[in-house]
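Q: what sequence does this backbone want?
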């Protein structure tokens, strides 16, 4: 049976610290220890699995090999691989490959063959900003509150308490990198103990507990340009999380989400809406007040207008944020069927309907055409 991933065995992320790994192991050991689960083969195997995972991941060299090559790398190292030593006959050859792989993995070098600690750019952040349609169309200014990791002001990001400083990592010698030999080759990898920082804080800052960063909520002013739509992003440079070891901060991306509107639907630069009209207005013609984002306008309804007809109001849509002409508003009229009629009103409509049926060709050409099409369909089906 193939071995499970050590990180999954302990249920920890790949970035877990040594303390987090040991804590996870203690929890599993208490749960599956043979003394607490006598004659339980499954618990015994889980206990052994957790113990092996802890032993591998708390050893910096073994963990570095495992992170790069998995279980196969551990097995190869146990057959003769390991961390490179000094003064051996292969050192000159290893240095050549160390330089090559150092360039590949972005490891900076300094005089004397040593490395220097890596700096890390802060993470980018995402914030979803919900807007009403008119705010998206005409632009909007607001303030948002963003929780993020900021540089600790007490220790200025060093992580060390006042009067002390971080010491060079004894695993990587302060370079932030370790060398892993695999037979004839050597690779450089980020040191698992200092995570590439090159230093270890032995006397941590009381404010940030040695992390160099603290979580704070920051208020930021956001100016939303006119014409934005759902999915558009506004980039606030340098407003992401603080970097590590003097690295630059990340960026904050404000993602726009436009709420549904009670009347209008948006399609790019165009807007559309439904306009209910009465049977009388559709038949005899008339006018109806139509709302737009700029205010109400009067729409003229011609006589004999059919339900579903679309009227176009030019320049009543949206001006795109990336430039171009303003869109239009499309109004689709819907004839509203009268409801809650009195007996007298019902009788009047019945009489009207009877007069209209006297000449269907003239008064209802679409209905007549539809009925004739139905007859042809069924006649053709019967003949087939």
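A:
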């Amino acid at each position: 049976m193939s071995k499970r991933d050590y990180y999954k065995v302990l249920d920890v992320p790949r970035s877990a610290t040594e303390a987090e790994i040991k804590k996870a192991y203690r929890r599993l050991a208490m749960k599956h220890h043979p003394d607490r689960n006598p004659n339980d083969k499954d618990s015994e195997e889980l206990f052994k699995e957790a113990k092996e995972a802890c032993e591998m991941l708390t050893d910096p060299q073994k963990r570095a090999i495992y992170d790069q090559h998995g279980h196969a790398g551990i097995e190869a190292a146990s057959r003769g691989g390991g961390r490179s030593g000094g003064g051996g006959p292969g050192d000159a050859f290893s240095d050549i490959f160390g330089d090559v792989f150092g360039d590949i993995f972005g490891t900076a070098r300094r005089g004397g063959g040593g490395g220097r600690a890596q700096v890390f750019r802060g993470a980018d952040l995402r914030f979803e900003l919900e807007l009403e349609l008119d705010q998206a169309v005409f632009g909007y200014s607001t303030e948002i509150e963003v929780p993020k990791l900021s540089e600790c002001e007490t220790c200025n990001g060093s992580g060390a308490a006042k009067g002390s400083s971080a010491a060079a990592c004894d695993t990587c010698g302060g370079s932030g990198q370790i060398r892993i030999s695999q037979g004839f080759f050597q690779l450089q990898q980020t040191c698992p103990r200092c995570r590439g920082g090159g230093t270890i804080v032995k006397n941590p800052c009381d404010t940030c507990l040695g992390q160099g960063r603290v979580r704070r909520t920051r208020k930021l002013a956001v100016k939303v340009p006119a014409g934005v739509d759902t999915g558009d992003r506004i980039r606030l440079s340098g407003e992401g999380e603080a970097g590590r070891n003097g690295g630059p901060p990340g960026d904050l991306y404000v993602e726009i989400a436009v709420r549904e509107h009670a009347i209008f639907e948006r399609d790019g630069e165009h807007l559309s809406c439904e306009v209910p009209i009465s049977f009388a207005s559709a038949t005899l013609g008339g006018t109806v007040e139509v709302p737009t984002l700029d205010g109400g306008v009067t729409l003229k309804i011609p006589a004999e207008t059919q339900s579903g007809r679309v009227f176009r109001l030019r320049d009543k849509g949206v001006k795109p944020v990336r430039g171009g002409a303003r869109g239009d508003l499309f109004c689709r009229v819907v004839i509203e069927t009268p409801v809650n009629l009195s007996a007298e009103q019902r009788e009047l409509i019945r009489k009207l309907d009877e007069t209209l049926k006297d000449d269907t060709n003239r008064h209802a050409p679409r209905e007549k055409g539809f009925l004739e099409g139905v007859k042809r369909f069924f006649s053709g089906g019967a003949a087939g």
